[in-house]
Design goal:
elongated; Methane Monooxygenase Hydroxylase, Chain G, domain 1; about 425 residues; 7-stranded mixed beta sheet; alpha+beta; 14 helices; about 65% helix; about 10% strand
Length: about 425
């Protein structure tokens, strides 16, 4: 890039920053005008400049810009990005084009290359290393089965498999694996079943929806030369991408729990705040459990591949590296479970403290009014009328009310006195214990 191009790119990025600053402040009508201006500025930048700009922007600004980028440019921009930023933007990707249900890839000069497939004839002439089917129609499944002679499951039936049918080898040598892959978005978190079939030098994958791990793997294999050499490498790297994605999701749980922890350790918390915190903790606990189940399933799949002697020595070493990563994730998930339990118990403790305070107030009120009830009962007796027969009723009842107020005040001050004395005694005992 020449100096003039670099200067132009920096000026455009500064203009984008300026429009974003206005975008956060203006009303709806002007906001739409800003979006139009943003789109015009973004169209002037190439993929490398866009990747550079998104890397230096904050998370919120990055998301605004990313939503404005045309879909046909996003994949090229993701390839030019560092891996961490790529994970963040690819994680919330939702495909808008449902026509791309079958993707076919081959190896070209050490890079993964997608082959356009419009008909069964196109698939017949292809020499793929990977055929990826996302919620395929029956027609597309039939194409793959007829051309390659492979038995592919319907993605709707993947969740109905028994445990014993998840990993097996057919008589013709085809290797079948059914694994769970993590899907973690802002509005949902779940595990999605994926079916793999290894037939000679081709990997087939069937699933019901797009997954971040697959998208990240495609981007990495297209950006890095000689990243994969055969279908087994591709399969192992898909499992590795899922482990990395799970680790990234665990980091998000850490961040969320730190934010929740700052609220938990406040000196006071209302019941409404406690309810919101419990809901947030439960959500993170659910995601942590899904990650633990997901990496457990990945470990079982990798162990099956190692026991079946399908892999080369280099691939065995790759599997051992992935398994070591999974072991470290197990430790993190266990730590997070303990942290979640502690924060949940602390929040429930605040709720109990609030309830104890309410009960204490009711107890004090009952104690204050108990002697009043006794005196009021005496005042309602006929004997009281006889004792005050010679006193005007205005004076008699005024004296009664004054007596009630005095007894209430005396009772309340008595309760406060004994409460303060108890606190002083406990404080003194604590100081003595610390001095020892």
């Amino acid at each position: 890039m020449s100096d003039s191009d670099e200067t132009y790119t920096q000026e455009t990025i500064l203009n984008v920053r300026s429009v974003l600053a206005r975008h956060r402040l203006v009303e709806e009508l002007v906001r739409k005008q800003n979006l139009v201006e943003l789109q015009r500025l973004l169209e002037q930048l190439d993929a490398d400049a866009m990747a550079q700009m998104l890397e230096i922007f904050s998370h919120d600004d990055r998301q605004i810009v990313w939503d404005l980028i045309a879909e046909n440019r996003k994949e090229e921009i993701l390839i030019a990005m560092p891996y961490d930023t790529r994970v963040e933007l690819a994680a919330d990707f939702r495909p808008r084009n449902r026509n791309m249900v079958i993707r076919v890839f081959d190896l070209h000069e050490g890079l993964l290359r997608q082959i356009p497939i419009e008909s069964k004839a196109d698939l017949t002439h292809a020499k793929p290393i990977w055929i990826d089917l996302v919620m395929p129609e029956e027609e597309h499944l039939n194409w793959a089965q007829d051309v390659f002679g492979v038995d592919l499951p319907d993605p709707k039936d993947l969740t109905d498999l028994e445990t014993s049918a998840r990993f097996y080898v057919e008589d013709n040598g085809d290797v079948h694996l059914h694994s769970d892959f993590l899907l973690d978005r802002k509005d949902e978190s779940r595990n999605v079943a994926v079916a793999f079939v290894l037939k000679k030098e081709t990997l087939f994958s069937v699933r019901s929806e797009e997954l971040p791990a697959f998208r990240l793997q495609r981007l990495r294999a297209r950006a890095e030369s000689d990243y994969i050499s055969d279908a087994k490498d591709l399969l192992l790297d898909l499992y590795a991408a899922d482990v990395e994605y799970s680790a990234n999701a665990l980091e998000d749980i850490y961040t969320e729990l730190e934010a929740v922890g700052r609220q938990v350790f406040k000196s006071y918390m209302t019941d409404e705040e406690a309810a919101k915190i419990l809901a947030a903790i439960a959500e993170e606990e659910d995601l942590n459990g899904r990650i633990r189940r997901n990496v457990l399933d990945t470990r079982r799949a990798l162990s099956f591949l190692m026991r079946g002697k399908f892999l080369s020595e280099t691939q065995h070493e790759d599997v051992r590296e992935i398994l070591r990563d999974i072991e470290s994730l197990d430790g993190h998930t266990s730590f997070l479970f303990n942290k979640i339990n502690f924060q949940m118990e602390a929040t429930v403790g605040f709720i109990n403290v609030n309830q104890n305070k309410d009960i204490k107030r009711l107890t004090v009120i009952s104690l204050v009014f108990m002697p009043l009830n006794v005196i009021a009962g005496i005042g309602g007796m006929s004997e009281f009328s006889m004792m005050t027969a010679g006193i005007p009723w205005q004076i008699a009842y005024s004296g009664l009310f004054v007596g009630l107020a005095f007894v209430s005040w005396f009772t309340f001050m008595g309760v406060q006195f004994f409460e303060r004395r108890k606190i002083k005694r406990l404080s003194l005992e604590n100081r003595k214990a610390q001095q020892r």
